[in-house]
Design goal:
The complex is a heterodimer.
Chain A: H1 2-22, H2 37-40, E1 72-76, E2 85-96, E3 118-130, E4 135-146, E5 149-161, E6 167-181, H3 189-192, E7 197-212, E8 217-230, E9 238-240, E10 246-248, E11 254-267, E12 273-283, E13 288-295, E14 298-301, E15 304-315, E16 343-355, E17 366-378, E18 383-393
Antiparallel strand pairs in A: 2-3, 2-18, 3-4, 4-5, 5-6, 6-7, 7-8, 8-11, 9-10, 11-12, 12-13, 13-15, 14-15, 15-16, 16-17, 17-18
Chain B: E1 10-12, H1 17-21, E2 32-40, E3 43-51, H2 54-75, H3 83-89, E4 96-97, H4 100-115, H5 144-150, E5 159-162, E6 167-170, H6 183-197, E7 203-207, E8 210-214, E9 223-228, E10 236-242, E11 245-251, E12 256-259, E13 262-265, E14 279-286, H7 289-302, H8 304-312, E15 318-323, E16 328-330, E17 334-337
Antiparallel strand pairs in B: 1-9, 2-3, 3-7, 4-6, 5-6, 7-8, 8-11, 9-10, 11-14, 12-13, 14-15, 15-16
Helix pairs in contact in B: 2-6, 6-7, 7-8
The chains are: A mainly beta, B alpha+beta.
Chain lengths: 394, 338
């Protein structure tokens, strides 16, 4: 009986011992101990030790230490009361663009607002990361409006990390409730009526799995299921039938898209990263596509980086697509939008990014300035140059 | 290896941008911040001085370069004929007479060893490097007995000092000392002293993250120091304002290995021979860069509780610890503002 009792006690102690070891910030070889007076004043007496009158000369001479602060205010930028890491982002994008083609909706209008739309799209994002339970959770909302289009977006996301933080599984759900103004080509306005807004809603579910392979190589797999419904055709786009009649584009009311991607990032050093992405895409309109993307950001200083980028893309034609005067009235759906045609495209350019923790132009909250130039080239003849400016405020 | 290059993490949030952009004239009434980045002691040194004269500022910075090169030649273990290596060469054979500068530095190191229960130990150089080729690809922890064997020569008590003759004797054959855990801080402190003697009233010497600041910015404000976020080291996770103070950070977030799901830093506990785990970064704030540099790593080895228990009993020193689960632990004299 006594023997059994001892056995239990031993087991109990070993459980305690195992528990104590899991407090990983402690090292049992070092003990809490009361310091001696001279140890407590170690800093003040750093160069003047009692009992050692040897030259202080090798030292740095006497320092006036009396004015050393009694306490320090440390401003934490990113932790909450339970010390979870919070990140708040408020992005304010300005994207100034001109487009020549939108003026042709109504050729009698010589100049319209659409010739130089300024898009303004604020967004709010919040996230919280709990490192003990290895998860993060976030939510965001966005609103954007153009003269013919408004969009309300919401998203929630959840990520779970492995214990060593080397693997991350993420789920993101997004919904965009868009409303856009119906604008028919001018010659069709009489028959089809004019004005009004039509909905176009998009629902996305993204799944990602990222894995740190080693200190230099990271991999992630992405699956983005997307479902769109509502007015998907762009009604002001004309379609000319074989009989030379003019119609407004007509496309199915729903679309289901499946993109699947593989991303590899290689950190070649402190200053140089190579990012690459392969993506396969398929949808129920008959488009299959492949794309390859490469980007190589190079940090010139910690605050200033340049990154050249290149993208190659190829896709098959959608079932609804046919070119100018190719459609017939046999078709239920018709579009001559070359975005839905078979093509290959290339996009290359340079991104310039400047950040400052102190603020740019003396504005404390203004911390990132980004300028992107790109040249786009498509096999069916579309070429464009674009410049994008992004400003980020804390 | 070990304590040499851990403290790369403190970044000055550029104190006065206007001054840096301005092209300074040879003589002007305005105090301008002159900044120079130098590679010294195998590390990145950033020296910033406030002066109204760029030629004089440049001369002062040049004198710092000469001084730090002199210190390097005393402390280096990469050169056979440095005084430090002479001590190592005669380990177990005979005492070596050294200059008072090294002698006093070793005395201070010994006192720090006693204070930190041996977590700080300059005989750390004795560790068997062939065995402990600590790298990121390590997947298994070594056997505890084997690890212990590698640190058998590490013991600061076996440094025999003779105050009269200024000799240093390492008792055991094969013992080695090195100043990796204190050298950068010592150099930063010497550089500051030299600049102050030349009349520089304000400046910052940043020896690869071990920095010491004195005086004020040209605006009259104290210097703002950012402490790097262990999660993303180009972002400060916090900032503090200091004047006449030194800050040093030791962190395991730059070099570590994950073994069976647990993160181990490249810092080896001199008592066990095992890599340390549990703490991501330790920041020490105190008036002296040498002491700040020396204390950051031992606090990491001792652990948050014992380390802060020690710091809290001491005057004129403050400490911020971030553990592996991103919890912040601080000494009592730190006020966190969010």
């Amino acid at each position: 009986m006594k023997k059994i009792y001892l056995g239990v006690a031993f087991l109990y102690l070993s459980v305690l011992g195992a528990f104590a070891q899991t407090d990983s910030t402690e090292n049992s070889l070092y003990k809490n101990r009361k310091l001696k007076v001279e140890e407590a004043n170690f800093v003040s007496s750093y160069y003047h030790q009692e009992g050692n009158n040897s030259a202080v000369t090798g030292g740095i001479g006497t320092e006036k230490l009396s004015d050393f602060a009694n306490s320090f205010d440390v401003t934490l930028t990113r932790f909450d009361k339970t010390n979870r890491l919070h990140t708040f982002d408020f992005e304010f994008g300005v994207d100034h663009y001109t487009s020549a083609s939108s003026d042709k909706i109504d050729p009698t209008t010589i100049s319209s607002a659409s010739a130089a739309d300024t898009r303004i799209y604020p967004s709010v994002n919040w996230s919280v990361k709990d490192d003990i339970k290895h998860y993060s959770f976030g939510a965001g909302a966005s609103y954007s409006q153009e003269y013919d289009y408004s969009s309300i977006g919401g998203n929630i996301n959840f990520s779970k990390f492995s214990k060593d933080n080397n693997r991350e599984l993420g789920i993101k759900l997004m919904a965009f409730l868009d409303s856009w103004k119906v604008i028919y080509p001018i010659e069709l306005r009489g028959n089809l009526g004019n004005g009004g807004y039509k909905p176009r809603n998009s629902f996305n579910a993204s799944f990602s799995l990222s894995q740190i392979i080693n200190t230099r190589l990271q991999m992630s797999m992405l699956l983005d299921l997307a479902y769109q419904q509502g007015q998907l055709g762009t009604l002001y786009q004309r379609v000319y039938f074989r009989d030379n009649s003019v119609h407004a584009e007509k496309l199915p009311e729903s679309r289901f898209k499946i993109p699947l991607g593989l991303r590899l990032n290689y950190f070649a050093g402190d200053r140089f990263i190579i990012r690459s992405l392969y993506r396969f895409y398929t949808d129920d309109w008959g488009i299959n596509a492949h794309s390859i993307e490469m980007e190589a950001p190079y940090k010139i200083t910690p605050f200033f980086s340049l990154s050249p980028f290149y993208r190659y893309y190829t896709q098959t034609s959608a079932d609804q697509f046919a070119g100018f005067q190719q459609h017939t009235s046999q078709h239920n759906f018709y579009s001559s939008d070359y975005d839905l045609s078979k093509f290959t495209s290339q996009y290359a350019g340079l991104n310039l990014r400047f950040t400052s923790t102190d603020g740019i132009l003396g504005m404390k909250k203004f911390n990132t300035f980004e300028l992107r130039y790109g040249h786009y080239n498509r096999s069916n003849g579309l070429n464009s140059n674009n410049i994008t400016l992004a400003l980020k405020f804390k | 290896m070990g304590r040499t290059s851990q403290s790369q993490s403190i970044r000055i949030c550029c104190p006065d941008k206007k001054a840096l952009i301005q092209i300074p004239s040879a003589l002007s009434d305005e105090l301008i911040l002159f900044k120079k980045v130098l590679k010294l002691m195998g590390n990145r040194f950033e020296i910033s001085v406030l002066s109204d004269n760029n030629i004089y500022a440049d001369d002062c910075i040049q004198s710092v370069v000469v001084e730090i090169q002199r210190i390097e030649s005393l402390l280096t273990t990469f050169r056979e004929d440095s005084e430090t290596n002479l001590i190592n060469k005669y380990a177990g054979i005979s005492p070596v007479k050294v200059c008072s500068e090294i002698y006093d530095l070793i005395c201070r190191c010994r006192r720090i060893s006693e204070l930190t229960q041996g977590a700080f130990d300059i005989t750390y150089g004795s560790i068997d490097k062939r065995f402990w080729n600590f790298d990121l690809n390590m997947t298994e922890l070594p056997d505890a007995e084997l690890a212990k064997e590698t640190v058998r020569l590490v013991n600061y008590r076996n440094i025999i000092l003779n105050d009269q003759n200024k000799t240093v004797f390492l008792k055991e054959k094969g013992m080695r000392i090195g100043f990796g855990g204190i050298g950068k801080g010592y150099a930063a402190e010497r550089a500051k002293l030299l600049l102050k003697h030349q009349g520089i009233k304000s400046g910052i010497v940043n020896a690869a993250g071990d920095l010491t600041a004195w005086g004020f910015q040209s605006s009259g404000q104290p210097w703002t120091i950012g402490i790097a976020d262990p999660e993303s080291r180009n972002q400060p996770f916090s900032t503090l304002n200091i004047t006449d103070a030194a800050v040093a950070t030791s962190g395991n977030y730059e070099k570590f290995a994950v073994i069976r799901g647990k993160k181990y830093s490249h810092t080896i506990d001199p008592k066990t021979g095992f890599p340390v785990s549990g703490i991501k970064s330790v920041t020490i704030i105190c008036p002296n860069a040498e002491f700040a540099d020396a204390m950051a790593t031992p606090v990491m080895i001792m652990g948050a509780k014992v380390g802060l228990g020690m710091i809290n009993q001491m005057q004129k020193i403050a400490c911020i610890i971030i553990d592996d689960s991103n919890q912040i632990h601080t000494s009592n004299n730190i006020k966190l503002a969010r």
